[in-house]
Amino acid sequence: MKILLVEDEPELLSQLEKLLSEQRYLLDCVADGKSALDRIFSESYDLIILDIMLPQVDGLTILKEMRQAKITTPVLLLTAKTSVDDRVKGLDCGADDYLGKPFSLAELLARIRSLLRRPGRECEPELTAGSITLNTISRVVTRAGENLELTPKEFSLLEFLLYNKNRPVSRITLAEHVWGDDFDPFTMSNTIDVHIKNLRHKIDPAGTEQSLIKTVRGIGFMISGEY
User: Fold this and answer.
1) How far is residue 13's CA from residue 87's CA, in Å, rounded to a whole number?
2) 98 backbone dihedrals φ, ψ, rounded to 5°
3) Domain ends where: 61, 83, 116?
4) Is residue 217 part of a domain?
5) Beta carbons within 10 angstroms of residue 30's beta carbon
6) Distance CA 93, CA 223 (A)
7) How many domains is the chain partitioned into structurally?
8) 137 and 213 in one domain?
9) pLDDT for 30-87, tens place per residue?
């Protein structure tokens, strides 16, 4: 599942980014309203976690513009404003749920799971290629029906490549989506290759000559529909 996190408090943003990445969600993070709108209108998300008090464009304005544009992505509002009137205003603007600050991380994860399982999302989406199946809700990866144990980073790499099946993905793009700001191309130049090697070892059956993850020379990697 791909989530957009919009939060302008650096410490909270870093904490939530770490938490959600550990839960194996594919994550994009922005810290202002304008950047959030740019992402929302250019990319597809399964859930948006949206702070109300944001620089440049506030969260409620973002929410109104989304709904006016018929973007129905579920939205979880985060805010320090917890009065009934504020909650009603947020829900009337099109929010699907509302969480007041401060909140427990366990409650946040529960709200996320609830939103991702609401009516219209009962069928757990699965990404497949060859004998590999990745369930984006249960976070389970199987090969020919047998569970595979992947690290969070390996899961995120495989999920992003499957989302982009039949399209080459550059190393830099992979790094931005999986490691975010923690990725330093000068000190971690071999990190992607090492993780891809380990991932291939786990998802490719023993004795297989051709890997599910193909190297695209000069670009990066790709999973194709044929295996």
Assistant:
1) 22
2) -145, 130
3) 116
4) yes
5) 19
6) 40
7) 2
8) yes
9) 999 999 999 999 888 999 999 999 999 999 999 999 999 988 899 999 987 655 666 6
